[in-house]
Design goal:
Blueprint lengths: L1 H15 L9 E2 L5 E2 L7 H11 L7 H14 L15 H4 L1 H4 L8 H15 L3 H14 L10 E2 L22 H12 L3 H7 L7 E2 L9 E2 L10 H5 L16 E2 L8 E2 H8 L4 H7 L3 H16 L9 E2 L56
Antiparallel strand pairs: 1-2, 3-8, 4-5, 6-7
The structure holds protoporphyrin IX containing FE.
Keywords: Calcium, Disulfide bond, Glycoprotein, Heme, Hydrogen peroxide, Iron, Metal-binding, Oxidoreductase, Peroxidase, Secreted, Signal
EC number: 1.11.1.-
Protein name: Peroxidase
């Protein structure tokens, strides 16, 4: 009896102070100090992927890694639709999950990441979230986010066919409902997560123009996405609009219909507007929502906090202030928030710009 009591007490302590309890600080083989010795395993991964997966830049591979964090994690339903959340199923069961329309284009990212997962013998669920957090540190202006390890290998693909990953042609109600069902995200958190579209573009919406960016500065994580999507749409960047594409305001730039609607919906427009030009608020809100994304299907207490492996963030360059694109002005902003005016920004001088495509890797 006494033996069992001691055993139960020990187990209870283990549960309360689960895997994320800070242990004694450890020094890794490379001399880095970490809170949990298990985290040392991630330094070789970091040193490998920054040059060899991302080429040290906030380019196509970094963008793809960020998108993959979302598409892996969101395949989960709190109301019984199944899925393992951020569990790496999109890689392990890619035969199934890549047949879902919403995952179009992710085969390149999966092909690029898979050899690193095998080489470093980490779980795919952990790797996807780690690579996403590291990719952000290469994008000037992005916040430094946390990273937790300990996701078991996936047991099954996220259930299909299609439906768990939001599509750009979904209406706002469906997107907000889906995000709430998957991760209890509030409308504000959904807006915050869309800061990711500041370092993003589309390859598959209009396949004739791969790498078409969503804002004019896809290699820095600024708040231009929140400004430029609020401008009156006047053009499509390609010959024919794709499914889920709305008119954008700047040549060479694509606007997702979903981004355009979320910027104008009464549930989200005021928060969207608050992000415009407010870099530090965007960073804080995005970092918190992004950490929550990687926790879908898990809890902090079941994982180990390895945030100390993530390098420092890269600050925005000095000349990257919020602005309106050349030749446009405040009158081109489509005011949507009913309770406050959209902030004013200087207009960049010069002729109308055509944003170049993101070089494809
Ligand atoms: C909530 C609704 C969302 C919708 C409807 C949506 C939709 C899309 C679409 C259609 C693309 C273009 C895919 C292509 O044609 O190549 C895209 C790209 C991207 N999305 Fe989202 N997205 C959403 C949320 C998110 C979130 C939460 C994240 C990350 C946290 C994210 C990160 C990205 C990134 C980084 C790209 C660019 C990928 C690249 O350039 O290779 N998105 N998104």
């Amino acid at each position: 009896m006494a033996f069992f009591a001691v055993l139960l007490a020990a187990l209870a302590v283990q549960q309360v102070y689960g895997a994320s309890t800070p242990r004694r600080r450890a020094t890794c083989a490379g001399g880095q100090q970490v809170t949990n010795a298990e985290c040392c395993a991630w330094f070789p991964v970091l040193e490998d992927i920054v040059p060899n997966l991302f080429g040290g830049e906030c380019g196509d591979d970094a963008h793809g890694a960020l998108r993959l964090t979302f598409h892996d994690a969101i395949g989960f339903s709190r109301t019984g639709g199944g899925g393992g959340g951020a569990d790496g199923s999109i890689i392990v069961f890619n035969d199934t999950e890549l047949t879902y329309l919403a995952n179009a284009g992710l085969d390149d990212t999966i092909d690029a990441e898979a050899p690193f997962i095998a080489k470093h013998n980490v779980t795919p669920g952990d790797f996807i979230q780690f690579a996403g957090a590291v990719s952000l540190t290469l994008c000037p202006g992005a916040p430094r986010t946390g990273f937790f390890m300990g996701r078991a290998p996936p047991e099954a693909p996220a259930p299909g066919p299609d439906g768990l990953v939001p599509e750009p042609f979904d209406n706002v109600t469906n997107i907000l409902n889906r995000m709430f069902d998957a991760g209890a995200f509030s409308p504000e958190e959904v807006v915050a997560l869309l800061a990711s579209h500041s370092v993003a573009g589309a390859d598959t919406i209009d396949p004739t123009i791969p790498g078409t960016p969503f804002d004019s500065s896809p290699s820095i994580m600024d708040t231009q996405i929140f400004i430029e999507v609020q401008l009156k749409g006047t053009l499509f960047p390609g010959p024919d609009p794709g499914n889920g594409e709305a008119m954008s305001a700047v040549a060479g730039e694509m606007r997702l219909e979903s981004d355009g609607l979320i910027a104008r919906d009464e549930r989200t427009s005021c928060f969207w507007q608050e992000m415009a030009g407010n870099q530090s608020r965007m960073q804080e809100q995005f970092a918190a929502a992004f950490l929550k994304l990687g926790m879908i299907g898990h809890s902090e207490s079941s994982l180990i906090d390895c945030s100390d492996v993530i390098p420092d963030a890269t600050p925005l360059p000095d000349n990257a202030g919020p602005h309106l694109p050349p030749t446009l002005d405040q009158a081109d902003i489509q005011q949507a928030c009913a309770t406050a005016a959209f902030p004013t920004f200087p207009v960049l001088p010069g002729p109308a710009e055509t944003v170049p495509a993101i070089p494809q890797s």
